[in-house]
Amino acid sequence: MKTNSTIEHHADIVIIGFGAAGGCSAIAAHDAGVKTIILEKQPEVKHYSNTRMSGGGFHCPGPDGDFESIKAYALAMMSGENLPHKLEGEQPEFSDALAHAWATHAPQNAAFMQSLDPQFKTFSSAGAAFADFPGADRAHYACLRSTYMDKQYDASLARITTAADKPLKESGEAFHACLLTGVQSRKIPIHYDTAAQSLLVNDEGAVIGVTALHQGQRVVYHARRAVIIASGGYEYNARMRKAFLDGPGKEGWAFYGSPANTGDGIRMALKIGAALSKVSSVAGRVICAIPERRHGLKIGLNTSAVGKPNEIVVDNMGRRYAAERRITKDPSRYIFYKEALQFDTTTLSYPRIPSWMIFDSTLMDGGPLVAASAAAYNDIDWDKGNQNALRNGWILQGATLAELAEKIRAHPDNRSQMDAGALTQQVETWNRYCDAGSDPDYNAEPDTMGVVKKPPFFALPLYPGGPNTKGGLRSNARREVLDWDDQPIPRLYAAGEINSVFQFVYQGGGNLAECIVFGRIAGANAAREAPIEKTSAA
To answer: pTM higher than 0.70 for the full model?
Structure first.
């Protein structure tokens, strides 16, 4: 319907965002018998959500795992409240209910995905990453990887593919293909290239719809039952990053997720009184970033070479501060950014922003330093030999370590802090450790150790960041969005990265898993709302 140049649509439930959370919410609502519409701001031909760009891993405890153990393990990750060394719980009002919901639904995650498409396959890639957490021994915890291929995941293959055939898809592409199959088979409409702008609220304070823009045209979506926000985080919103992230939020961070994640859902919900929770939380470590910009922000890339032999990671002065494999190993890789945020109260600086990956020609010649998918999704031409990055100045080169240190000093983000003598000594110390087969400073794993000796030498700046932010809207276990008095905003729900349940620590695959679990919960609860026939805003 078109009225006074405004297009109008009516549905029971309107969902903002088509990633894993939005798709699972829509399927649950549809299967409950209500009419659902998904709004996706990206055009269909360029729709690359964080879900699609991900590794396609998701938690799925074994159905035969002990219920209380699964719940205990989830509680530890989500809040830490059952860990004796924690000072206080992060979300005591809802933590038990959240963990209970997880233990109830997470063991069904694989079965749910396979119900959407029987061709979808999984294989186990990990167990409980926090082996000492309560319940880890009896939860039968598992992280599964997504694929349509008949073999296990091949890390040498780029995750992105232009092939339409599902048998060629794996990782996030496979997960997305399965989800899309489930949505399309139900004929749930997806309105692509439609950016939500604001939430409509009636005189009673209930959310009754969404205004949006479609190719410059104003569109009003009337929601008879509820609106679900599943629009992801704020990785590419400079103002939110400066407001929410620790340290230099704009220039000191980088992300390699979807540039469409600009905090739209947070902005819209704040305007009608929504509260925030752990908004600075991130799934991240330290990654490289290139100067090219999206929304005025550096583009991050998943720097998979960190933690391999023939490299070390140092701070701005040339000093190691952790075992390099911790940066890329689960679960420390998703909380390592906290290490990079150290603030020196004497110099009033962040000595580890950026950090520097120092490596030699052995690693440089050994293959791409970044994950192929991260570069491809972001339209970055990072070739297998890393030569484009070198020519573009993204990688610094020196014939000697002293020359490399001078190149680093000249980098604007180093601010002339690199000490050539300290860097040279640090590399020499590392090489002695490698020859001895042990790292007495940080206990690096022996198979990750390799000397940095073969010239020329190279450096790559690393910034706190990763795939996504996790903090955002405060929500209860029903996934109702709450105001600052912890009262639900009527008929407003949220799921996914915008209100991640992992507000203490995080195990890889948790984001997709919570999208399945709490996306379905949000969709089912929204569908139970009694319909409002009059949906005119106040």
So the answer is: yes
CA 174 to chain CA centroid, Å, is 17
Q: Kindly report the average pLDDT of the chain as a whole number.
A: 93
Q: What is the DSSP string of 409-471?
A: HHSTTTTT---HHHHHHHHHHHHHHHHHT--TTT---GGG-----SSSEEEEEEEEEEEEE--
- Picking from 215, 224, 235, 223, the residue whose alpha carbon sits closest to that of residue 198 is 223
CATH 3.50.50.60 in the chain, residue ranges: 2-232+470-527
Report which residue type is found at 426: Q
Phi, psi of 521 (to 5 degrees): -65, -45
Helix (H, G, I), strand (E, B) or coil at 376: helix
Tell me the C-alpha distance between 49 and 166, whole Å: 18
Burial (CB < 10 A; 0-12, 13-18, 19+), residue 522, is buried
For residues 101 and 75, the answer to whether their CB atoms sit within 8 Å is no
Q: What is the CATH T-level fold of the domain 2-232+470-527, as seen in this structure?
A: FAD/NAD(P)-binding domain (3.50.50)
For CATH 3.90.700.10, list the domain ranges present in the chain. 284-467
**DSSP helix/strand/coil, 228:** strand
- Chain position carrying tokens 């910009």: 293
Query: What's the pLDDT tens digit per position in 311-370?
Result: 999 999 999 999 999 999 999 999 999 999 999 999 999 999 999 999 999 999 999 999
Average pLDDT estimate for 499-515: 96
